[in-house]
From TrEMBL:
The lineage of its organism: Bacteria, Pseudomonadati, Pseudomonadota, Alphaproteobacteria, Rhodospirillales. SUPFAM superfamilies: Tetrapyrrole methylase (SSF53790). Pathway: Porphyrin-containing compound metabolism; siroheme biosynthesis; precorrin-2 from uroporphyrinogen III: step 1/1; Cofactor biosynthesis; adenosylcobalamin biosynthesis; precorrin-2 from uroporphyrinogen III: step 1/1. Pfam families: TP_methylase. This is uroporphyrinogen-III C-methyltransferase.
Amino acid sequence: MTKLGLDFPVFEPGWVWLVGAGPGDPGLLTLHAVNAMQQADVVVYDALVDERILNLLRPDAQRVYAGKRGGRPSSKQTDISLQLVDYAKKDLRVLRLKGGDPFVFGRGGEEGMTLVDHNVPFRVVPGITAGIAGAAYAGIPTTHRDCNSSVTFVTGHGSSGDVPDNINWAALAHGSPVLVMYMAMKHLRRISAELMANGRSGDEPLAVINQATTPAQGILITTLAKAADDVERVGVEPPAVCILGKVVGLRDRLNWLSPQDDVKEVRTVPFEQILELISTPADPQKD
């Protein structure tokens, strides 16, 4: 298929494409994603896929909801994966549309392995992940050479719904100046306690960004020690991504969203306190 003077791959019948829909803003879709959406016969989509994105699908495409939300009735991952196989075996063009990036805490790898096991050909279309885009839309760079030279992505809960038991909290607390935490809201109190118990400062700034890149985006600026209480007090709800580190303090200068974007912000830590943390030299052992 040729559009915009570019050659795009043809979505063949019997194939499954694992496509990242990005964090919410339709403008952050890739051209490959839009190309897939215009060709797909059946679309199996997640709860976090924005309605405006679904409106870009081929009008006659069959839509199949396969939302997975923590604490709510959800489709089982095994069933979703096998559903993709069943549709592909019917010689349909199967689009698995996932929020963010399929291979970043999106379980796209599990679905891909199932397709391999059943000899179903597939293609992966990466998407912009919420941990990067949400931070950027909040005016927070995930890396800045005056603050950090590394960043770590971590999930707040595993397949069981609990905090993963294989996290090395000491290494996480000391080894990465900036932590981007996905799906951490439910266990934010425990996560904060574990990080502080292993040497992370409770005064370190933390941003909670919910509904990232959408018109409903909200931003809570707090600290590691106060985060859980502030989230409960303000009533922040998932989906949300949490950013921990000095880079959070750069928001005051890099907040590029205009007033008409109507972003809700709650600040529970004085900017002067964050500024002081930013100006503190980085610990070489943490960078």
